[in-house]
Design goal:
CATH topology: MetI-like fold
Radius of gyration: 28 Å
Largest sheet: none
Shape: flat
Order of helices and strands: HHHHHHHHHHHHH
Strand content: under 5%
Structural class: mainly alpha
CATH superfamily: MetI-like
Distance between the termini: 74 Å
CATH class: Mainly Alpha
């Protein structure tokens, strides 16, 4: 009897093993344990990207009774909101251009320019820190350097150069200068790998065909770098457009001619005279749309750049 029970247990175990084996074979080939590694990433995206974006969209398109309304979106056309958006777009465009030009030249100098290796490592190390040095610490650093009683301001004053009262860090161009500070190293970090990807044989082939330095850059190098450069500029624009802490530390929370959209959104949730959360959601929704457009440009440009590298 005991032997018969043992045989039955073995048969049952074999059946279960074969069932498990069949289930494993039926499993899709793409479903592996490796997905556990990226699960925290997807959770992060869902909790801190998708859910907030959905909440903003719902808040912008509904009222306190959860009814669908468009009044808040229509109010984006008011003079104050138009000014806030236009100021932010102008600041983003100016700092994208200034940061892009100066950052590209710096990245070119440490890669194609063949500067010593210690210069490249020093610049990249500094850019890694400076690209993330923003917000209130950056504003305090600028006030200490070129504020009314800043070190540089006093040095210039001692040699007869007075930048105040004509200049102010709280002005439109003051914000642009502060933003450019972190835009330059940001572009250096992005464009350095792209410049490193320029192959020496491409330059040699251009030289053998009689091309000048200017022709090489205009007809060979720049068309190759253009997708990477466009994607980098899109990121710079989004970086400046969504900045908040630096502008708030420089301008403050008041409503004025230098108001940027991120501060205007905050005012709708905290300012006693302007409080309108649903309008704040609508203004934030407009920011999400602008950033989504730049992300689309970035993704499209990166795909073009990767396609070129893979084909070459």
């Amino acid at each position: 009897m005991a032997q018969t029970a043992t045989i039955r247990n073995l048969d049952t175990s074999a059946d279960s093993n074969s069932l498990f084996a069949r289930l494993v074979r039926m499993r899709p080939t793409w479903l592996t344990w490796n997905w556990l590694g990226v699960l925290p990433f997807f959770l992060f995206i869902a909790l801190f990207q998708l859910y907030p974006a959905w909440s903003i969209a719902v808040g912008a398109l509904t009222d306190d009774s959860h009814h669908l309304v468009l009044d808040n979106m229509l109010k984006l056309g008011s003079e104050l909101n138009r000014t806030s958006y236009w100021n932010t777009i102008q600041i983003s465009l100016i700092t994208t251009a200034s940061g892009g030009i100066l950052g590209f030249l710096l990245a070119w100098a440490i890669t194609v320019g063949r500067l010593p290796a210690w210069v490249r490592s020093s610049v990249l190390s500094f850019c890694g820190v400076a690209a993330n040095f923003a917000g209130i610490p950056l504003a305090l650093a600028f006030f200490s350097a070129i504020g009314r009683v800043g070190v540089i301001t006093q040095v210039l004053k001692s040699i007869g150069i007075f930048i105040y009262p004509g200049f102010s860090l709280s002005s439109f161009f003051g914000i642009c200068i502060a933003y450019t500070y972190f835009q330059i190293p940001f572009l250096v970090l992005i464009m350095t790998p792209a410049l490193d990807g320029l192959r020496e044989e491409w330059r040699e082939a251009a030289d053998n065909l009689g091309a000048t330095q200017a022709q090489y850059w205009r007809l060979v190098a720049m068309p190759i770098l253009l997708p990477s450069l466009l994607s980098s500029l899109a990121l710079l624009f989004a970086n400046a457009f969504g900045a908040y802490a630096t502008a708030y530390a420089l301008v403050g929370g008041g409503v004025g001619e230098n108001l940027v959209i991120s501060i205007a959104v905050r005012a709708q949730f905290s300012n006693d005279s302007l409080t309108n959360p649903h309008l704040g959601y609508a203004m934030a929704f407009g920011m999400v749309i602008m950033v989504a457009i730049t992300v689309f440009i970035y993704t499209w440009s990166r795909q073009r750049a990767e396609r070129w590298r893979n084909s070459s």
